[in-house]
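FORM 12-B: Structure-to-Sequence Request
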């Protein structure tokens, strides 16, 4: 049985790749038993849909890559 921390990691990870079947079963079992993780999974799915729509509706506002200036500003903010 997986815990909530592992569940949150797997919920995010499954957005990027297909999880092994045993892991998917363990995650589904956890989500069936844990209301908070189920809410988190629902929220993550909604955010994924919203970001997909934003990229279609306003592609100029959602560039595929960041400019060098934006990368520099993000790095500076993280270093603070």
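FORM 12-B RESPONSE
SEQUENCE OUT:
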């Amino acid at each position: 049985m997986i815990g909530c921390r592992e569940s949150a990691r797997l919920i995010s990870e499954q957005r990027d790749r297909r999880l092994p079947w045993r892991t998917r079963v363990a995650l589904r079992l956890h989500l069936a038993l844990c209301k908070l993780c189920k809410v988190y999974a629902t929220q993550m799915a909604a955010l994924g849909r919203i970001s997909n729509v934003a990229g279609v509706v306003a592609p100029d506002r959602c560039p595929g890559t960041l400019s060098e200036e934006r990368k520099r500003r993000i790095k500076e903010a993280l270093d603070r």
